[in-house]
Amino acid sequence: EGFCHAGPCVANTWLVSQWDVCSAQCGSGLVHRRVTCIGDCTENTRPHAKEDCHAPKPCKGEWLTGRWTVCSHSCGDGMQSRKVVCTITTEKGTQTAPELNCLDRRKPKVERGCNIQKCSASWFTASWSKCSQQCGEGEKTREVVCLQNYRRSEECMRGDMPERSQSCEEQRCVDRDTGDTSDEEELDEYDSNVDEDIVGEEEGEEDYEKDDSLYREDTAPAKPSILTTTETSSVISNEIVPEKHWKMVKGDGCKDKFKNCNVVVQSRLCKYSFYQTNCCRSCVGLNQD
């Protein structure tokens, strides 16, 4: 029988190991250690198992890349892009940094080409031309071509072809003498009514010459309408006045109220009192000729 010594007795005590190596090779990181209890220990007295640490050298920047975008074209050559930023890791986590911190590393590509599939023939259009008329209704046109791989092709569907021309109206026309907007619609509507009376005009002219004596014999009740400058243009008459009874007066009161009175003269419509009133100046010139 002999004596021995096992050391002091340890009971109800927290025990810790040595600290491990810092988790970061550069910059800030964490260091860990193991914690254990011998016996019965209270949790509120437990030692901490980790703490911050700093590596001997600061961290250099790292390039961080995002996802590529969708190809810019659904067919043919296109482009894709992505975000590329320089980041550094600190005690606060990973943060963006100026690109100077990443100059020692090759920067990844920001853009790249892409080609999902070949393009079929399709229609291409140029810009619209200016309106053919400065005022009133006109027409504008544009070029429309079929292209495949940026070359002319005949493979496009004709039914899908965009329109080459289109009606246009920059502004309504204004009468230079009166300053009023053109009454073309009213004039066209009246012309349609007059056209019915012009049917058989050649045959009717002989009858007017024969009946001209009626105007001379019975001037009081059957006196034809005399066009003067005092008559208002609002009175629309379809009455035909023989040329020898025209009494249009020159002066400021005799004006053309329609911009197309030259067409009235060419169409021999000055025999109608309506046109004598609204195309006075042009019809007076015709009478003198």
Provide a short characterization of the protein structure.
The protein has helices at residues 184-198, 201-210, 212-217, 261-266, 273-278, 280-288; strands spanning 13-16, 28-32, 35-38, 50-54, 62-65, 77-81, 84-90, 93-96, 111-115, 122-125, 137-141, 144-148, 151-152, 165-169. With 289 residues, it is an alpha+beta fold. The model is unreliable at 182-187 and 192-238 (pLDDT under 50).
Entry keywords:
6 helices, 289 residues, three-stranded antiparallel β-sheet, rod-shaped, alpha+beta
Structure, explained:
This protein is of the alpha+beta class. It is built from six helices and 14 strands. The chain has helices spanning 184-198, 201-210, 212-217, 261-266, 273-278, 280-288, and strands at 13-16, 28-32, 35-38, 50-54, 62-65, 77-81, 84-90, 93-96, 111-115, 122-125, 137-141, 144-148, 151-152, 165-169. The strands form six sheets. The protein has a three-stranded antiparallel β-sheet, with no helix packed on it. Strands 10-12-13 form a three-stranded antiparallel β-sheet, with no helix packed on it. Strands 1-3 form a two-stranded antiparallel sheet. It is rod-shaped, with a radius of gyration of 50 Å.
Label the structural class. Answer: alpha+beta
Give me the Rg, rounded.
Answer: 50 Å
Distance between the termini: 163 Å
H/I helix tally: 6
Overall pLDDT: 75
- β-strand percent reads 15-25%
User: What are the low-pLDDT stretches, counting only 5+ consecutive residues below 50?
Assistant: 182-187, 192-238
Give the overall shape: rod-shaped
Helix-strand string: EEEEEEEEEEEEEEHHHHHH
Q: Order of strands side by side in the largest beta sheet?
A: 5-7-8
Helix content: 10-25%
In total, the number of strands is 14
Please describe the biggest sheet, giving its number of strands, its sense, and whether it closes into a barrel. 3 strands, antiparallel
